[in-house]
Design a protein that fits this description.
The protein has 21 helices and no strands. It has helices spanning 3-16, 40-59, 63-70, 72-79, 83-101, 104-111, 113-130, 137-165, 170-198, 203-208, 211-218, 254-283, 288-300, 302-315, 320-339, 345-355, 358-368, 373-391, 393-405, 409-429, 435-440.
Amino acid sequence: MDNQSSYDSMMGFMAREETRTRTVTSPRTGTPEGRTLTGPATRAWTMRLLVLGIVLTALNLRPAITSLGALLEEVRDGLGMSGSVAGLLTSVPPLCFAVFGVTAPRLARRFGPGTVVCAGMAAITAGLLIRPYTGSTAGFLAASALALMGIAVSNVLMPVIVKRWFPDRVGSMTGLYSMALALGTASAAAVTVPMTEVLGGSWQTGLAVWAGLAAAAVLPWIPFVRDRGAAPADSGQEQHARVDAPPLRITRSRTSWALAVYFGLQATGAYITMGWMAQIFRDAGVHAGTAGLLLAVTMVMGVPLAFVIPRLAGRLPHQGPIVLALGACGLAGYAGLYLAPAAGSWAWAVLLGVSNCSFPLALTMVGMRARTSAGVAQLSGFAQSTGYLLSIPGPLLVGVLYQHSGGWGLPIALMAGLMIPQMAVGVLAGRDRTVEDEAAR
């Protein structure tokens, strides 16, 4: 299913719901957790705008990273970076996601999720526009951190928004969001190099142009900015956007820890892939444009699969079999990169693309492992922040191993080795239970 048909299908669902009035009741408190939606025209407009905001937000959550991966060699030469510093650069995304992502639930309680996501999109716009023209490695890192801060809070709040606005369509909406995220990731990887050549060959221009897409994503969230997390019960527009944290000790839950480690290991593999895979192919003799296209193939595999996997996962009581299947594809892809990186490059790109769909699976499990949207907010913040913190050393270590070994054998062996514990904790995270029950015990 392509992106347009998926969007049309979701719009059809919204249209069928226009004449209904629904209140979502919290199992924890017994009180309405969502808003009672009245006024078919207002509801239809709000829901369509929200879906547009979710899709545009998802499109902007990876181009800041994959566009840099496609031009990493040019950026290194232009700023005089060593291999170790470049490895540090590829570790900045998970570091920012860990540091800033943990603040997202608190910010959402105070200002409302819509306000925070709108500010996040503005931060991405500013960071992408500034970073190519700072003229130094330190400035480049600082501007990248600004953009990644916006990505971090939006990463955490997307499952919360899906759970609150679409509690009976978590799998479908997560699939739509994940599919748009994969599309943005793949597009940046595929078109950054040729677009840079068309625009005159300057890597600065090739990176800065992605600020335009981020600016477009600010607009749908502006109507949701007026909520400050304290709307009266009859306000109708944003009552349910407030995220009240439950009295839940999330660290008592084994599932929350398993999900956090799974999130961290899949993020490690994903950011190593986005930051280094194009360089692996280039070092194997593949042309720079083709290497970027191969990275795009890896990313674009997530477009259809990111829609299918969450829906399939939502229908299964245990997501372990999906975890194992994705892990097996990753192991096969790494083996191919090690043995014949250039000869079978397209096959390895496809296999690693399938394996990278662990990300939408992890997001789906976040939505399924908690009963309430407040629980999802806390679980999402914990799993993503802890997971991204765990993923920080991976890309940096790959850069160090590459520089000191003079080849890709050791880095690829590291990537393959990390896939084994990822599969193990993924099976644990996929068990049919909730963090509320585990924390209570």
